[in-house]
Design the sequence.
C-alpha cells in the first residue's frame, strides 16, 4: 500500500479532536440565562456562582472550595495565600506551561525534578536531593488525573517543613484510597477549561485546607477586597462569572455519565492496542477511582518502527487529532532553559517520555467505531510505513 | 422633620445601584449560543472572539487590540510584554486596587504620586521629582474616563526614557483631541466588567502599539504558546471565552445609545445639583468626547454641613447605592502602606478627594425621575440633618 492509499483508506470524514466538551441541553441553559437577565447580576459571587461552589464541594467531598475564572489564576492565588513569594519550589517539567508560569508570577524559581517512569508524576526519590535553603514548597502535578505519590511527598514535606500544592488540573472526581485526591497536600487546584472532563467553559477552583484560608482566598480572587473599605492583600481578578457557573451547574449533572463513558472508551483502547509491539499504555493506578480524563500511550520507535512524531503526522492526516501532551518539556522554554535544574541530563525520564507520549482522542460521546478505527490505524501504520531510499519514512515528509 | 420621617419620605421602593449593565435581547443572545452549541468551540480564540476583537478595534479606531478574560490580567500582560519586571513604576493612589496589584504581580514597587485637584488624575507636575534610577514606567489612570495630561506625561516619559501604560479601565470610547484616548501612551488597558459602560460580563482588552507587539500579547495571554511546540515566555491564562464575546458583540450595538443616555442623565445631575453649596461636580474635560461612565461629586463637609460618609449613609437608607470610588486610597492597604511614597503627607490632594468623593448612580435606563429624586435627597439632606446633643449627626448612627 502506498502512503497515499493508506491515508485514503483510513482518513475520517470529520476531524476527531483529542477531546470535546459535553454540551448540556441548550434549552435548560437558557432557563438559567433567564434568571440572570432578570437579576442583571452577571458576576461577583452571584447566586449561580454560590450554588455551583456548594454543589462541586459536595460532589467532590471537599468542604473549602473557591471557584476561579481559570485554573492558572487559582494557582497564582494558591501560592499567594501560602505567602510563597520568593525562593524555590520543586516541580515537574512534564506538565502544561501554566504550572511553571504560576511560579514565575509569584517570583519563585522553579526547580525541575525528574518523573517516575511508571506514574509519569514527580519521582519522590528524586525530590530530597533538590531541597536547599531556599526551597519553600513542592508543586507536583497529578498528570492525566493519576495520583502522585502523595504519602511519600507528604513525608518529605513534613521532614523539611515545606508546603505541598497539587496542580490537580486533570484530577476532577478522582479518588485515592477512598478519599478525594484533591484533599491531599496543603492546597489543590483544579481546571475546568473546555478541554477538561468537567468544564465551566474556562474555569478552575482552589481547594483550601480550612474555612479561614478559603475566606482569604476569596478575598484574594477579588482584588484582596474584604469589604467596601478594606483591601487585605495584593489580590487579583480570579472571579468566575454567572454564565460560566450556569454551564458548570449543568455539566455537573452529566459528569458521572461522562466518567463512565470515558471508562468504556479507555477499555476499548486497552483492548485494541494491547498487542501492538512498541505501544505502551499506562498501568491502571492502584487504589484509585479514575476519571478517565486522558488516554496517553507511549511509542517506542525502535520496537514500533515508527516514531511518535511520525505516528502523530499520520493520525493528523487521517483526521485523528491526537496531542503531544506534554512535549516539549516546559523546562525547554527559553524562560526556563538556563536554570541548572532544566538540564536534560537531570530529567532523563521526562525527556524520554515527552518524546514518546501521545494522547489519543477521548470524550464521552466518541463513537466506539471511531475508537476501534483509531486502534486499527495505529496497528496498520506500524506495518505499512514506507521509506525513502535513505530510510526516512514518507510520513515525516507529509507532516511538513 | 425627624430622621425617620426623612427616610420614610425619600426611600425608594427598590435599590438603585451605582450602575447596571445594559442587557441585550436574550433571544438574540440565544442565537449566538446556538452557533456555539453547533461548533462546540467554547474558548481559545473562537470565531466570536475574533469577530468581537475586529469590531471593537473598528469601533474604537485602534488597530492592535487583544481581548482578555478581565482587565486585571491585561494589565499584568501589559507590563510583561514591555519587559517591566522589576524596579519602580510611578502611579496614582486614587484608583481601583487592580492598578497597583498589577505592579505587585510583576515584581514592581509602586511609587505613589499625588493627583491634580481638577482632573483627579496623576498630577504631571509631581511626577518628575519621583523619578529615580530604578524607575521603569509611568502607570496613570484615566479616572472616570477623563483624560490624563497625556501630552505632559509623554514629554516626561520621553525625557527620562520611561514607558507609559494607561489604565484606561473607565475610558471606553472616549476621544481626546479627536483621537481615541486609548491610542495614547505605549499601551492602554480597558475593562469590560459588568459595571462598565461596555461589558463582556467580565472582560478587558489590551491596546498594543504595533502588530508585532499584539502578536506577542496574544501569545502571553495563552500561556506564551506560539505554536503546539513553542512557548515564547512566561504567559498566563488571559483568554476571553465565546460566551463573553457573544455578550460583547451585542453590547457593542447598544453602546452609542448607552453613552448618549448617560449624557442626558449627567446633564440632569448637573442641573439638579448646581445650586447646592458644598457639592462640587467635575468640570467637563476639555477637547474631550466623554463617555459619561461615572458621575462623581465631591462633598465639602464644612460648606455642605454633612460629611461624605453621612451623605453616603443617608442615601443608602433611601435605597440609593452611591459608591465611594475611590476610598480609601490603595496606598492605605497594608501591603503598600509602609512604602515611603504612600505617606499621606505626600498625597494631600488624593487624601482629601478620597474623603470627599461619591459616585452617584448612572446607567442608560436610569429613569430621569429617579435622578431628580436623588438630587432632591442630596439637597434636602443638607437642610434637614439633625444632630445629637454632642453635635454628631443622627445619620452617622444609622450607618452602624
Sequence:
Amino acid at each position: 500500500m502506498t502512503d497515499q492509499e493508506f491515508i485514503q483508506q483510513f482518513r475520517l470524514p470529520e476531524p476527531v479532536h483529542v477531546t470535546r466538551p459535553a454540551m448540556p441541553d441548550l434549552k435548560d441553559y437558557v432557563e438559567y440565562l433567564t434568571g440572570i437577565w432578570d437579576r442583571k447580576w452577571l458576576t461577583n459571587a452571584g447566586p449561580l456562582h454560590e450554588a455551583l461552589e456548594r454543589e462541586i464541594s459536595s460532589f467532590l467531598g471537599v468542604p473549602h472550595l473557591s471557584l476561579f475564572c481559570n485554573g492558572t489564576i487559582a494557582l497564582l492565588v494558591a501560592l499567594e495565600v501560602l505567602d510563597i513569594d520568593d525562593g524555590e519550589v520543586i516541580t515537574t517539567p512534564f506538565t502544561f506551561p501554566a504550572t511553571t508560569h504560576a511560579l514565575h508570577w509569584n517570583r519563585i524559581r522553579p526547580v525541575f525534578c525528574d518523573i517516575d517512569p511508571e506514574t509519569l508524576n514527580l519521582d519522590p526519590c528524586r525530590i530530597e536531593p533538590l531541597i536547599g535553603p531556599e526551597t519553600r514548597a513542592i508543586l507536583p502535578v497529578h498528570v492525566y488525573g493519576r495520583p502522585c505519590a502523595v504519602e511519600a511527598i507528604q513525608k518529605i514535606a513534613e521532614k523539611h517543613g515545606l508546603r505541598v500544592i497539587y496542580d490537580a488540573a486533570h484530577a476532577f472526581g478522582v479518588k485515592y484510597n477512598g478519599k478525594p485526591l484533591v484533599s491531599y497536600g496543603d492546597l489543590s487546584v483544579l481546571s475546568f477549561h473546555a478541554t477538561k472532563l468537567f468544564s465551566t467553559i474556562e474555569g478552575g477552583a482552589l481547594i483550601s485546607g480550612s474555612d479561614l484560608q478559603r475566606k482569604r482566598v476569596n478575598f484574594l480572587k477579588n482584588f484582596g477586597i474584604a469589604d467596601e473599605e478594606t483591601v487585605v492583600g495584593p489580590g487579583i481578578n480570579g472571579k468566575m462569572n454567572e454564565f460560566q457557573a450556569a454551564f458548570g451547574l449543568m455539566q455537573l449533572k452529566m459528569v458521572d455519565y461522562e466518567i463512565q463513558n470515558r471508562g468504556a472508551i479507555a477499555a476499548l483502547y486497552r483492548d485494541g492496542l494491547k498487542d501492538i509491539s512498541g505501544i505502551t499504555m499506562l498501568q491502571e493506578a492502584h487504589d484509585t477511582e479514575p476519571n478517565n480524563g486522558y488516554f496517553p500511550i507511549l511509542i517506542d520507535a525502535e520496537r514500533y518502527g515508527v516514531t511518535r512524531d511520525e505516528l502523530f503526522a499520520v493520525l493528523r492526516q487521517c483526521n485523528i487529532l491526537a496531542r503531544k501532551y506534554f512535549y516539549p518539556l516546559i523546562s525547554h522554554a527559553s524562560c526556563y532553559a538556563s536554570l541548572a535544574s532544566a538540564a536534560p541530563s537531570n530529567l532523563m525520564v521526562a525527556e524520554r517520555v515527552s518524546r514518546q507520549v501521545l494522547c489519543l482522542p477521548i470524550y464521552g460521546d466518541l463513537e466506539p467505531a471511531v475508537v476501534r478505527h483509531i486502534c486499527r490505524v495505529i496497528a496498520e501504520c506500524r506495518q505499512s510505513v514506507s521509506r525513502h531510499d535513505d530510510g526516512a519514512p514518507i510520513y515525516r515528509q507529509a507532516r511538513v
Q: What stands out?
A: The CA atoms of residues 175 and 181 of chain B lie 5 Å apart. Residues 396-400 of chain B have pLDDT under 50 and may be disordered. Chain B touches chain A through 58 residues (CB under 8 Å). The first strand of chain B starts at residue 16 and ends at 17.
